[in-house]
């Protein structure tokens, strides 16, 4: 069989990292990224990019932990290299604070992040409305720079990228041997996945360079995540809302909640509002499927539905998707050698 042609549909953090893993694990493949939008116009560009996992109720915890660990290890190495500032990857320390002690004092990812420990009484004095907290160091991706860095890596490995809206995966069958579906919330329409729903998120990106520590309320709704150039203030979670228009009431609510956690933010400047739709599902859809029409078959690998945690697990799920592409190639090679006999 000639070099397999693989189309990765989608150019958010999931599509770009999946294309990179496929190119790395299968150098003989010809990989293309097809997407109707690229950075800075994807959901991934809106994200805060913090490595604090979201929990997927439909995925075993040990699998989620593995994805997180692989992602953390990969980004930690970048943060510790000369590439760190161009890739927008940096370590950040801070606190997750709770009004009441949570049932689970040790989250499953506590031994993956660095230096996880309960907060001291002295630290808790900074948060008079909170009674319990966890201190740790994690990683953050500055999203547009990280996506541009991934695109640069892809070009360097010979992966081509084209702007194209795919109306039906089947339309790719005559040009590609394997299709990888990384379309995020776009999969709702593209493959009619009714289990996939948007959770609208609004954030503010502000200039407040004196804020160096992250602060996250344990309810996950209010957070302050300092990046290399801007601080992300969040947020909102609106299930089933498809609106991409900023809501001025939500902007005020986010700003007031963040200022009550970090009063110095009252001096923040150049406030920009961003909205994105988290591609949410009970579990990430990471699986092989073979589409078939009139005896013609098209192997597909799905990798979408990362909800609120796509950055936290992207490398782990990309590696698994690349492994599934390897299985598709083995199956295609098996059937082409059988056909020759
Ligand atoms: P997208 O980034 O949406 O990419 C999908 C791609 O597919 C796009 O390029 C799109 O153009 C393309 N596409 C779709 N349909 C088609 C089609 N039919 N044809 C061709 N192309 C198509 N996660 C974290 O881990 N940490 C965080 O701190 C964090 N903060 C967040 C804050 C907010 C406000 C939001 C909204 C999300 C946050 N997330 C965070 C979640 C994270 O952003 C997502 O999980 C992640 O971006 C999903 O990536 P994706 O590549 O699947 O989707």
UniProtKB/TrEMBL annotation:
<comment type="function">
    <text>Selectively catalyzes the oxidative deamination of acidic amino acids. Suppresses the level of D-aspartate in the brain, an amino acid that can act as an agonist for glutamate receptors. Protects the organism from the toxicity of D-amino acids. May also function in the intestine.</text>
</comment>
<comment type="similarity">
    <text>Belongs to the DAMOX/DASOX family.</text>
</comment>
<feature type="domain" description="FAD dependent oxidoreductase">
    <location>
        <begin position="5"/>
        <end position="324"/>
    </location>
</feature>
<protein>
    <recommendedName>
        <fullName>D-aspartate oxidase</fullName>
        <ecNumber>1.4.3.1</ecNumber>
    </recommendedName>
</protein>
<dbReference type="GO" id="GO:0008445">
    <property type="term" value="F:D-aspartate oxidase activity"/>
</dbReference>
<dbReference type="GO" id="GO:0005829">
    <property type="term" value="C:cytosol"/>
</dbReference>
<keyword id="KW-0732">Signal</keyword>
<feature type="signal peptide">
    <location>
        <begin position="1"/>
        <end position="19"/>
    </location>
</feature>
<feature type="binding site">
    <location>
        <begin position="43"/>
        <end position="44"/>
    </location>
    <ligand>
        <name>FAD</name>
    </ligand>
</feature>
<keyword id="KW-0285">Flavoprotein</keyword>
<keyword id="KW-0576">Peroxisome</keyword>
<feature type="binding site">
    <location>
        <position position="166"/>
    </location>
    <ligand>
        <name>FAD</name>
    </ligand>
</feature>
<dbReference type="GO" id="GO:0005782">
    <property type="term" value="C:peroxisomal matrix"/>
</dbReference>
<dbReference type="InterPro" id="IPR006076">
    <property type="entry name" value="FAD-dep_OxRdtase"/>
</dbReference>
<dbReference type="Pfam" id="PF01266">
    <property type="entry name" value="DAO"/>
</dbReference>
<dbReference type="GO" id="GO:0019478">
    <property type="term" value="P:D-amino acid catabolic process"/>
</dbReference>
<feature type="binding site">
    <location>
        <position position="278"/>
    </location>
    <ligand>
        <name>D-dopa</name>
    </ligand>
</feature>
<dbReference type="InterPro" id="IPR006181">
    <property type="entry name" value="D-amino_acid_oxidase_CS"/>
</dbReference>
<keyword id="KW-0560">Oxidoreductase</keyword>
<dbReference type="InterPro" id="IPR023209">
    <property type="entry name" value="DAO"/>
</dbReference>
<dbReference type="GO" id="GO:0006533">
    <property type="term" value="P:L-aspartate catabolic process"/>
</dbReference>
<feature type="binding site">
    <location>
        <position position="183"/>
    </location>
    <ligand>
        <name>FAD</name>
    </ligand>
</feature>
<keyword id="KW-0274">FAD</keyword>
<feature type="binding site">
    <location>
        <position position="223"/>
    </location>
    <ligand>
        <name>D-dopa</name>
    </ligand>
</feature>
<dbReference type="GO" id="GO:0071949">
    <property type="term" value="F:FAD binding"/>
</dbReference>
<keyword id="KW-0963">Cytoplasm</keyword>
């Amino acid at each position: 069989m000639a070099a397999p042609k693989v189309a990765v549909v989608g150019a958010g953090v999931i599509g770009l990292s999946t294309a990179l893993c496929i190119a790395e694990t299968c150098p003989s493949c010809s990989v293309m990224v097809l997407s109707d939008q690229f950075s800075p116009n994807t959901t991934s560009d809106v994200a805060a990019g913090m490595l604090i996992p979201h929990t997927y109720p439909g995925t075993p915890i040990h699998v989620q932990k593995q994805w997180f660990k692989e992602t953390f290890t990969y980004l930690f190495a970048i943060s510790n290299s000369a590439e760190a500032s161009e890739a927008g990857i940096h370590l950040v320390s801070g606190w997750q604070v709770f009004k009441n002690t949570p049932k689970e004092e040790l989250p499953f990812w506590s031994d993956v992040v660095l230096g996880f420990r309960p907060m001291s009484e002295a630290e808790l004095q900074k948060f008079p409305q909170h009674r319990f907290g966890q201190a740790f160091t994690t990683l953050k991706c500055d999203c547009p720079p990280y996506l541009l860095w991934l695109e640069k890596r892809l070009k360097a490995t010979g992966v081509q990228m084209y702007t194209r809206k795919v109306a039906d995966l089947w339309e790719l069958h005559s040009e590609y041997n394997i299709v990888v579906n990384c379309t995020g919330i776009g999969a709702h329409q593209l493959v009619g996945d009714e289990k996939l729903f948007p959770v609208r998120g609004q954030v503010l990106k502000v200039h407040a360079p004196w804020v160096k520590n992250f602060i996250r309320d344990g309810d996950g709704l209010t957070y302050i995540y300092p990046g290399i150039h801007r601080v992300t203030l969040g947020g909102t979670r609106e299930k089933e809302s498809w609106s991409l228009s900023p809501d001025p009431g939500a902007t005020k609510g986010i700003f007031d909640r963040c200022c009550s956690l970090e009063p110095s933010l009252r001096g923040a400047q150049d406030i920009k509002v961003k909205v994105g739709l988290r591609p949410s599902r009970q579990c990430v859809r990471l699986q092989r499927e073979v589409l078939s029409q009139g005896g013609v078959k098209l192997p597909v690998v799905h990798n979408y539905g990362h909800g609120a945690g796509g950055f936290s697990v992207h490398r782990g799920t990309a590696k698994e998707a690349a492994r599934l592409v390897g299985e598709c190639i083995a199956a295609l090679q098996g059937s082409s050698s059988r056909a020759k006999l």
